[in-house]
Amino acid sequence: MTAEIMAATEASMEKALENLKEAFVSVRTGRANPMMLDKIKVDYYGVPTPINQMAAVKTPDAHMLIIEPWDKSCLRGIEAAILASDLGITPSNDGSMIRLPFPALTEERRKEMVKQCKAYAEEGRVAVRNARRDGNAKIERLKKDSEISEDDARRAEEQIQKLTDKFIGTVDEMLKKKEAEVMEI
Question: Can you give the residue ranges of the Ribosome recycling factor domain (predicted)?
Answer without folding.
Answer: 20-183
